[in-house]
Amino acid sequence: MNDASPILTLGLNAKGRDFLIGDLHGAFALLDQALADVKFDPVHDRLFSLGDLIDRGPESVRCLEFLNKPWFFAVRGNHEDMFLKTYNDGNINWKMANFHREKNGMGWFFDQSAETLAQIAAAFKKLPFAIEVETARGTVGIVHAEIPVAMDWPTFRKELLLNDRSVLHAALWGRKRLEGNDMRGVCGIDRVFHGHSVQGYKPRQMGNCYYIDTGAVFGLMGKEDHFLTMTNLMTETESLRIGPANRVGKTHILDKSPSLAVPFGNLTPKP
Known about the structure:
271 residues; alpha/beta; Purple Acid Phosphatase, chain A, domain 2; five-stranded mixed sheet
């Protein structure tokens, strides 16, 4: 069910900026606004996604539009994984589809043509479980849910390449670090971003791990203190810690990077 390497490694973007968004869940109108707000340059900039592009929101099918962009890179989230299991290589599991329509906002699935569903499935199969990006401040990891508790980044990479089921499950579904309030972070990498678990009012920092799913789709539905977070991968740590006092509407942009390429520094845990 995976046509690509489980981890994508990308080098330094020397000519532009690298942005990252939290879970979108079909709220693509907020992404359109955020891209306009940062004056996104598709020639030089890159946009990364923490997955869960689909379900609940009104424009889930637009995932295909963005996944076909050469500047857009997403990891697989648990909702993309649910889609693939439901689609089942074209042998659709309708019992599962009805369950996800009822419980997980997958009603849009029923409105798509066979051709569109096949195209989305093909795109989702190519999504890695993790992305590693080099920046001028250090190396950044992007994983939808979490890295297993007490596991360092090199081990995580190795186990992904071995298709270890427990590690893949943690990357898509895990919440043990959050539930245990584990502040140790992840050794062997400078900064890690996660989505999956909605944070109220602001992103959450745990060691060198940052949880930036601030409930975009719920904000789109009118829920207070929920919005789309978009951050520059090199944003100052302090900006990620504080609440979005400067938020406009339902998008919050974090694009305050040091004037010099200061390394991420002592927040990187040591083995």
